[in-house]
């Protein structure tokens, strides 16, 4: 993913979609929580407010830190893949990149604090928890590789990292798809039950396909694709 002079139409269209969908979710998902207290939003049944209203102070703090820093990461992320910005204004790319990775680290740690209190139970704890750990680890790998001057690895790790950031968008798309599938004609449709069903799938569904697509793009771009570290033990010889 690297739009700019010389990029194909498909690459530009893909990047524009990612940019606009990221902006839309950063506004649509975050802003409502900044307009009133969790208690007031909870009374109106807005989003996850009923789940976080009444939680200990550090969980509520983590919630606000997470949505603000996550929103910043979602807006800044697509800009890092814009080749024109990287080549013409490398200083801007560096500073936006530092801002992006700091936002990922902050939102990721806050996501880890929230995971035990999420509204999808154990599947949410493991799904969102694994996502938070991978989000932080891939961000650190991206930073370490560019500090070491390894541009190809840096690009690959940033692609994996942003694929995880983009889970904020795919989570909402999957919920829409899974609600739509359950609302197919021919059966009774109970919105509450259908939403609960959909929400039980998304803690993993929102990021595993994204990582697969990222790995495919990394290979297609000729960047170093992920290989599991080999064991240093020698194979046991058979007689
Ligand atoms: C990629 C790593 C991320 C992790 C591990 C993560 C984790 C979580 C968790 C555990 C929750 C609570 C879910 C629940 O209680 O059921 C949540 C909610 C939320 N997150 Fe994230 N998140 C991530 C990325 C983002 C990003 C990039 C944004 C930027 C918009 C974001 C914005 C939100 C918002 C607005 C909510 C409230 C849910 C809603 O109203 O739909 N998150 N996140």
Q: What is the helix content?
A: over 70%
- End-to-end gap: 51 Å
- H-E order: HHHHHHHHHHH
Query: What is the gyration radius calculated from CA atoms?
Result: 20 Å
Unreliable stretches (pLDDT < 50, length at least 5) are: none
| Cofactors, ions, other ligands | protoporphyrin IX containing FE
Morphology: globular
The number of helices is 11
How many E-type strands? 0
- Estimate what percentage of residues fall within beta strands: under 5%
What does the largest sheet look like? none
Nutshell version of this structure?
This protein has helices spanning 9-30, 38-43, 49-52, 57-80, 83-88, 90-114, 121-147, 151-165, 167-182, 191-205, 208-220.
What secondary-structure arrangement, pairings included, does this model have?
Blueprint lengths: L8 H22 L7 H6 L5 H4 L4 H24 L2 H6 L1 H25 L6 H27 L3 H15 L1 H16 L8 H15 L2 H13 L19
The structure holds protoporphyrin IX containing FE.
The site of protoporphyrin IX containing FE has 29 residues, from helix 1, helix 4, helix 6, helix 7 and helix 8.
